[in-house]
Amino acid sequence: MTSGGLEAGGQIPGFIVKKIEKEVYEIFIGPQHPGSGHMRIIVRLDGDIIVEADPDIGYVHRTMEKLSEVREWLKPIPLLERMTIIDACNVTLPYVNALEKLMDKKPSTRASYLRVLLCEINRVASHLYGMGIFGVFIGHSTMYMWAFGDREVFLELAEALTGARLTHTYPIPGGVRRDMPQELPGMARRAVRYMRRRLEEYRKIFVDNPVIVKRLSGVGVISKSRAVELGIVGPNLRASGVKYDVRIAEPYEVYGELDFEIPVFEEGDALARTWVRVEEIKQSLNIIEQAVNWLETHKGEPVIAKEDFDKLPKLHKEVYEREGRVKFVPAHATMKIPAGKAVARGEMGRGEIFYYVESDGGITPYRVRVVTPSARNAIVFKHVVPGHTLMDLPAIYGSIDYFPPESDR
Amino acid sequence: MPPKISLKKLDRRGGLFEGVKSNIHTLALGVKYLVDPQRSTLLYPKEYIEHRPGYRGFIIFIKDKCISCAACARICPSAAMKMVRVTEIDPKHPDKPRQKQYPVINYQRCIFCGFCVDVCPTEALYHVPFHDIVYENLADMFLSLEMFQVEPQRPATSEGLPVVYEVDEIKGLVKRRKS
After folding, report:
1. Cα A225 to chain center, whole Å?
2. Does chain A have fewer CB atoms within 10 Å around its N or its C terminus?
3. The CATH number of the domain where B114 resides is what?
C-alpha cells in the first residue's frame, strides 16, 4: 500500500472501496459474533435505526452440488443431509424422490409412512431448535434450555427408529433402511402426549409472556404481497397469510391421506412467525400419532418396494426378518440410473426445498441442483430489517429461523 | 381425510388484566420448575448410556466371513474404508501362500452411516452400540486389520454405571439405572 492510496483515488487490490455517508455508522455482526451464526450481517446505522442491512452469506459453502456429481448415486444422501443436520430426513427425501422418478420406482406404502413419521419427528425437532435459538437471541434463556431439552425426546425417537440421533440416512430409492422397532409406537405416543402438555407450558412462559409479546409484536412485519414478492417460503410465508405448503400444493409420500391442518396467520410479524411454529408442532404431533397407528395395524408389507424385496438373497431376507434391517445388494454401490431429468420438492421445517437431478445414464449424477428454504429466506435481512432498531435485528433473525449451513450448501 | 388449511388469529387482547394474568402464569410456572426441575443430565463418565440394539456405532470386522468382494470399500461415502492386500498361508496347503484383500477402516473419516454393514453380502461387518472411544493420536484412528477385528472397550465401562433414557409422559426424557 505504498503508492496510489485511497486519497489518490486508487484501488486496493482485493478490497472494495465504498463511500460511507456522514453520520452513518457501519458495524459488522459476525462471523465470529455468537449471535450471527455462520454468516456476517453488515449493518449501517443512523443513530439506533438500521438504514441498511447486508447479509454476507457463504461462510459454510461446501460445494455440495459439485461434490454430488462425483459420487455414486447413493453417496450424496449422507452428504446432503449434512446441509441441515437438524432436519436430515426432510432434506434428503426430495433427492430420493427424484431418483425414484428417474428409476420409475415406487416405495411401498409402509416405507412412505415410515418416511413421513421421521419427517415429522425431524420437523418437531427442527422447530424446537429454532425456537430455542430464538429464545436465547432475545434473552430468554429458559426457552433455550427447555426447547433443547425437549428436542432430545424427539432425537431419542429418531435414534430408536434409525440408529442415529441426527444423521439418519434413512430413505433410499425404493423404501427406507429399517423397519420400525417394536417399542417405537409406545415411545412415540408418550412423547406426543408429553409434548402437547409442554406446548401449553411454552405458551405460558414464552409466547404469551407479556415481555415477549411486547418484544415481538409488530417487529419485522412482512405483508402478504411483500412476502410473495420477496419469495420467502415456509412458516415465514404462512405467518404472512399466504396459504401455501408443499404438503398440500403437491402432496408427496402419504401426506394426501393424512388428516392435519396447515396453520396460517395473517399478521406477518415476529410473534406470528413464532406462533406458526408452535401450531405446526401440534400438527406434526397429530401426524406422528396417525403414522404410528397406521404402522402398527398394517404389518407384513416390506419397507422397500415389493419387486426389490423379492429379488433379495436368502441371507438378506433373514436379516430383515431378524433385525428389520434392509441390506443393500453390492450392485447398489455402482448402480446406474437411466438418463433423464427429474424434479422433486418437499416441505422442510424451514420451508420448501427443491431438487433438480439430471442423469446421463452413468454411475454418478450429471447435475444435482438444490434450492434450500434458507437460501430463499436470506433476502429478509436485506429488505425487512432496515427501519428497525439494532436491537430488533436478533428478534427478526431468530423469528425467520435462518440456518446458514442450509443456505450456503 | 385430506389435509386442509386453517386460518388462525393471534390473540391480542391487551389490557392491564390480561397482562397481569399472563405475568402471574409465567412466574408461577417458573417457580414450579424451580422447586421441581426436570433434569436429564448424564454424569459421564460415572454413567454411560447403554444404547438400544441397532444403534450405529463402531464397526467390527469378522475376517472368517469376508469374501473379499470390496463392496464395503466401494459404497463408503467418505472413503473411510480401504482394502488391504495380505498374504495368507492356508494350514492345509502351507506351500501355497494366497493373496487376499480385506477391509480396514479410518475413523478419522468414518461418518457411521452404516452403508458398509448393510452392503456386506456375508454379514462380515457389524455395529457395536457405542462410539465413545478415545485414541491417543490421530494415526491410531486408522485401524489395522488386527485392530479392526477386536471389539473395543468403552472407557466409561471400567468405572461407570450403565443408564438408559426412556421417554416418559410426564417428565420427558428420564434416566434410569440399568441393573
Report:
1. 24
2. N
3. 3.30.70.3270
Q: Cβ distance A143 to A131 under 8 Å?
A: yes
Question: Which residue range is the domain that position A179 belongs to?
Answer: 73-408
What is A392-407 written as a DSSP string?
HHHHHHHHHT--HHHH
Averaged confidence pLDDT in chain B: 85
| Cross-strand pairs, A26 | A44
Residue A390 lies in a domain: yes
Residue B118 domain-assigned (yes or no): yes
Locus of grid cell 434413512: A170
Which chain A residue's Cα is nearest to B31? A205
| Burial per residue of A95-118, b for 16 or more beta-carbon CB atoms within 10 angstroms, e otherwise | bbbbbbbbbeeebbebbbbbbbbb
Q: What is the pLDDT of residues A219-277, one digit of tens each?
A: 889 999 999 998 899 899 999 988 888 888 888 888 888 888 888 988 888 999 999 99
Beta partners for residue A351, in sequence order: A348
At A203-217, the pLDDT tens digits run 888 888 888 888 888
Is B51 within the bounds of a domain?
Answer: no
Q: What is the pTM of this model?
A: 0.88
- Determine contact: A73 vs chain B, CB below 8 A: no
Q: Are A198 and A147 in contact (CB under 8 A)?
A: no
Q: What is the CATH number of the domain that holds A351?
A: 1.10.645.10
B140: in domain: yes
A67 domain-assigned:
no
Angle at A379 between CA A378 and CA A382, to 5 degrees: 115
A247 HSE (CA, 13 A, CB side):
29
pLDDT surpasses 70 at A1: no
Tens-place pLDDT, residues A302-326: 888 888 888 888 888 888 888 888 8
pLDDT at B47: 87
From chain A, the residues in CB contact with B41 under 8 A are none
Tell me, what amino acid is at B100? K
- Using one digit for the tens of pLDDT, what is the confidence trace for A358-399? 999 888 999 999 999 998 898 888 888 888 898 888 889 888
Phi and psi dihedrals of A351, rounded to 5? Answer: 140, -160
Q: How many domains does chain A have?
A: 1
Residue A265: its chain B contacts at CB < 8 A? 7-10
Residue at A378 is within a domain:
yes
A248 near B CB under 8 A: yes
Q: What is the ipTM of this complex?
A: 0.86
Question: Which residues form the domain of B68?
Answer: 59-157
Number of structural domains (chain B) is 1
Assigned domain for B47 exists: no
Could you tell me if residue A243 is inside a domain?
A: yes
